[in-house]
Amino acid sequence: MNRAVRLCALVAELRAASRPRSASWLARSFAISARTVERDVRSLRRSGLPIVARRDGYTLDRSRVLPPLQLAPSEAVAVAVALHRLGGTPFHADAASALRKLGTVLPETDDETARELAERLHFAVGHPAPVVPRVIADALHGRTVLRIDYTDRYGMATTRHVEPLGYVGNREYWYLVAWCRLRDGVRAFRTDRIESVTGTAEPAPPRRLLPSDLDLPGDLVRPLVLG
C-alpha cells in the first residue's frame, strides 16, 4: 500500500471508528510501525484534518468534519476547476487547502477516473491575479478591525481603519466592502489598490451588509448560496 492510499485509508478508519484508535492498533491494522502512524497523523493534521490525540488513541473531532461526500469523478473535476479559478481571490489559500483534500473523499477507482479526466484539462497561462492578503479574510471571519493604506482611482493615498463586512467580486477584481471610519460609512475597496494591511485585535461592532449598501443594480449582483 503506497502512502497516498494509506493516508486515505487512515482517514476512512478514523471516520468510521466508534472509539479512538491507538497508534499500535493502527500500526497492526496497516502493517506499519507506530512511528509511521504518528508521522502520517502529523501530515493529516497539517492538511487541516481535525484529528484529536487522546490518552486512549486518535479520533476525529466530528463537530468539525463533514459527512463523506459522494462525488462522481466528473463532479470532483468540476470542483477542482472551480477551486483552481479562486487564485487571486480572498479564498485562494482555502481553495488550495480544499483541493489537497478533494482526493480523500473519492473511492480509489473513482479517484483514478477523476485524475484521468483532469489530465485532459489545461489552463492557459496569463497574468496572475493579485493575491488578496490572508489577513483580510481572517478579519472578515473573525470580525476584527483592519488598518489599511489605500490608493483610490485618482491616486489619492489614505490610511484608514475599516470594519470588514463582505466581498464583491467579478471576473477582474475583488472588492472589500467595509465600514470606513474615515468616511463614517460603507465603502468598497478594490483589493489590488490596498497598498498594505495590518490586522488588529479590536473587535468590530456588529453590522450587517445590506443589499442597499452595495449601490449596485439588483440584476448585476447576486449572493453566494450554499446548497
Total count of domains: 3
Which shape, going by the Cα principal axes?
Answer: elongated
CATH topology of the largest domain: SH3 type barrels
Instruction: Give the end-to-end Cα distance, rounded to a whole number of Å.
Output: 36 Å
Number of strands: 7
Strand content: 15-25%
Instruction: Write down the overall mean pLDDT.
Output: 83
In spatial order, strands of the major sheet run 6-5-4-3-7
Low-confidence stretches: none
Helix/strand-derived category reads alpha+beta
Backbone CA Rg = 22 Å
The CATH class of the largest domain turns out to be: Mainly Beta
Please give the largest β-sheet.
Answer: 5 strands, antiparallel
Provide a count of the helices: 7
N to C succession of SSEs: HHHEEHHHHEEEEE
Structure description:
This protein folds into 3 domains: 3-64, Orthogonal Bundle (Arc Repressor Mutant, subunit A); 73-118, no CATH class; 134-220, SH3 type barrels. It has helices at residues 3-16, 23-30, 34-46, 73-84, 92-102, 108-118, 134-142; strands at residues 51-54, 57-60, 144-151, 157-169, 174-180, 185-190, 194-203. The longest helix has 14 residues, at 3-16. With 227 residues, it is of the alpha+beta class. The two termini are 36 Å apart. The strands form 2 sheets. It has a 5-stranded antiparallel sheet, covered by helices on one side. A two-stranded antiparallel sheet has the order 1-2. The model has no long low-confidence stretch (mean pLDDT 83).
